[in-house]
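for the recovery benchmark. tokens below, seq after
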């Protein structure tokens, strides 16, 4: 089954490392204005994504979060945006619970989907905490080593993970082969950096694709943050001036669905169980 899934990480974090989250303040970035532009793109091209919401951002923009939840599928992107592989299991569980409770309180919708910051969720007892907190679907596993964590799967199709306390449905990130290595192309700095011809070529090859975009990826008018190192400045701003045009082209050339729509299309009994 051909599935292309479009997701948006809704957050005000503009850069982070293992020791630091750097948040872009309101006076340096009009979040509501950027969302309006993103929504105009989605509505014009009839795309219904899943928004993974950072709950600390939701606290500051509850009315906007309610608007999103009324129109789109939503999930949790944690509360603090700390890398999960730097937290203890108890810390992670508390952050997850706080995130879910806050989003449900604001929106009135049950939260059963999760994406870890930086795709940093280990496939150990941490994932058992997802089930303990009524999460059924995870979108955090990645088939490559990366800046914020290690490779956690060899699969690039939806699959199931058997844990002590139940089963999690997993929608992993999509990569492509480059010089023998798996590289991302469907979101963040990879999407902004790579030429559209390469993104289109690998989209055509993939029977399954998970896209992840941030609102900040299409906002070229963000102020520079002097606290960032030069590599992080580059990673944050590379390709940003052309990203909106590239995104419009991608969503126009291909059909995408939300995580929930994809979940409903899959016969999960036929998917691999690990």
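predicted aa per position
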């Amino acid at each position: 089954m051909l599935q292309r899934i479009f997701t948006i990480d809704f957050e005000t974090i503009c850069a982070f490392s293992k020791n630091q989250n750097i948040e872009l303040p309101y006076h340096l970035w009009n979040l509501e204005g950027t969302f309006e532009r993103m929504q105009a793109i989605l509505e014009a091209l009839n795309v219904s994504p899943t928004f993974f919401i950072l709950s600390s951002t939701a606290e500051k923009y509850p009315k906007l979060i309610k608007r999103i939840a009324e129109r789109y599928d939503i999930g949790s992107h944690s509360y603090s945006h700390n890398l999960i592989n730097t937290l203890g299991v108890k810390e992670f569980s508390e952050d997850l619970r706080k995130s879910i409770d806050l989003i449900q309180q604001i929106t009135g919708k049950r939260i059963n989907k999760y994406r870890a910051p930086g795709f940093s969720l280990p496939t150990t007892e941490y994932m058992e905490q997802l089930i303990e907190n009524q999460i059924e679907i995870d979108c955090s596993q990645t088939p490559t080593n990366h800046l914020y964590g290690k490779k956690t799967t060899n699969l690039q199709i939806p699959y199931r993970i058997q844990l002590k306390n139940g089963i999690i449905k997993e929608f992993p990130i999509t990569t492509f082969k480059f010089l023998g290595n798996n590289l991302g192309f469907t979101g963040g700095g990879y999407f902004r950096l790579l030429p559209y011809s390469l993104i289109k070529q690998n989209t055509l090859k993939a029977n399954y694709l998970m896209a992840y975009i941030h609102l900040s990826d299409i906002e070229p008018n963000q102020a520079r943050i002097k606290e960032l190192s030069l590599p992080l400045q580059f990673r944050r701003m590379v390709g940003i001036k052309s990203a909106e045009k590239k995104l419009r082209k991608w969503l126009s050339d291909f059909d995408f669905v939300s995580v929930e729509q994809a979940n409903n299309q899959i016969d999960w009994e036929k998917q691999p169980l690990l």
